[in-house]
Design brief:
The protein is an alpha+beta fold. It folds into three domains: about 40-155, no CATH class; about 155-245, SH3 type barrels (Roll); about 260-335, SH3 type barrels (Roll), CATH 2.30.30. It is about 15% helix and about 30% strand. The protein contains four helices and 21 strands. It has helices spanning about 40-50, 55-60, 130-155, 245-255; strands at about 15-20, 25, 70-75, 80-90, 100-110, 115, 125, 175-180, 185-190, 195-200, 205-215, 220-225, 230-240, 240-245, 265-270, 280, 295, 300-305, 315-320, 325-330, 335. A seven-stranded mixed sheet has the order 1-2-13-12-11-8-14. The termini are far apart.
């Protein structure tokens, strides 16, 4: 997989995992970690194409597509064509056979989908036969990959690499957003184009940092910190699936239907949260933890909305016994003693 610099395909890459403040950062544009691999891999179709050809070594050795590996180069004096080195990774090199597994080079012409062999005489190349369906599959995949590279070329201020300190570590350059998507998983993208998804993903309500100046083609350069492992993933996310905390909380309150409550809808309950603080939320959603982290404790008597829990939360009203200050909010239903 190449998401990078030399060749316009997404099946080779350079390795780059950054480390900042002792935390691992996987940048999906340049990392070769499994999570950063593209969902669509044109290397599979290229292997099929090469294995179907009558290139000399392939015709004699009959390798399976999965046995082959390759290296793609572009030469400045031959713009628009690709030089592909073919290797059979099943054939081990040794002292007596240092060239084992090396099948030679072929030239691929993207505009026609043709393969040519120039090994014997570069001035008189031989056109190779190949399976037409394999050629079309690779050509189509490659055309989609080219959209990703065009999206990268169209970026004016590229936020993906080369900044020190990291752009997300600069105060004021990023803002908090939350993921809202109808699908179970929202993939990251290695280029600002929906054809360029990688295997790394976030899910609904995940909190991310969106770079204020890292926006392009409806995407925003984003950072996600796993709350458990503290591992960091950076990549492109569609702006349409990112909303603010205020939007999440407003929507949750609206769905819960807690406007215009009357006293008759409230019942008295006691906090019973295993001696842990029971924190209040501005809305029934984990993203809506009250910023000042207000809480009640075991034994506190509260008024609770006499309705079924909404998304695992219940609406309460607490009156401080000394100051008589009234505090309202949502708490986890597990922290209340219910009949």
């Amino acid at each position: 997989m190449r998401k990078g610099i030399t060749v316009g395909f997404a099946f080779f890459t350079t390795f780059c995992v950054f480390s900042a403040a002792s935390e691992e950062i996987t940048n999906v544009v340049v990392s070769d970690s499994p999570a950063a691999q593209p969902v669509r891999d044109c290397g599979i179709s290229l292997r099929k194409l090469l294995a179907s050809s009558n290139q000399y070594m392939i015709a004699h050795m009959h390798p399976r597509p999965e046995d082959l590996d390759f290296l793609i180069e572009e030469h400045d004096d031959r713009k628009g064509v690709e030089f592909i080195e073919i290797v059979n990774k099943r054939e081990a090199k040794n002292d007596s056979s240092p060239g084992a597994g090396h099948y030679g080079w072929v030239v691929y012409h993207p505009d026609t989908g043709e393969l040519w062999d120039e090994s014997a005489d570069p001035d008189h190349p031989v056109k190779l036969t190949r399976d037409a369906s394999a050629a079309q599959e690779y050509r189509s995949c490659r055309a989609v990959d080219e959209q990703c590279f065009q999206a990268v070329r169209n970026i004016n201020d590229d936020p993906t690499v080369g900044f020190y300190p990291n752009a997300f570590d600069v105060a004021g350059d990023a803002s908090e957003r939350y993921v809202k998507n109808s699908e179970s998983r929202q993939p990251f993208y290695w280029a600002p184009n929906k054809n360029c998804a990688v295997r790394a993903f976030v899910v609904n309500n995940d909190k991310i940092q969106a770079l204020s100046w890292g926006q392009n083609n409806g995407f925003v350069w984003s950072r996600y910190i796993n709350p458990t492992t503290r591992k960091i993933t950076e990549g492109w996310l569609p702006q349409e699936v990112l909303i603010t905390r205020q939007q999440i909380c407003d929507e949750a309150r609206h769905k819960a239907g807690t406007e215009n409550l009357s006293a008759g809808e409230m019942v008295t309950r006691t906090v019973a949260n295993n001696r842990q603080r029971l924190y209040l939320y501005d809305a029934p959603n984990k993203a809506c933890l009250r910023e000042e982290k207000a809480f009640v404790v075991d034994g506190d008597r509260v008024q609770m909305l006499n309705k079924p829990a909404f998304a695992g939360y219940r609406f309460i009203r607490y009156t401080h016994p000394t100051s008589q200050k009234v505090t309202e909010g949502w708490v986890s239903s597990e922290g209340l003693s219910l009949p």
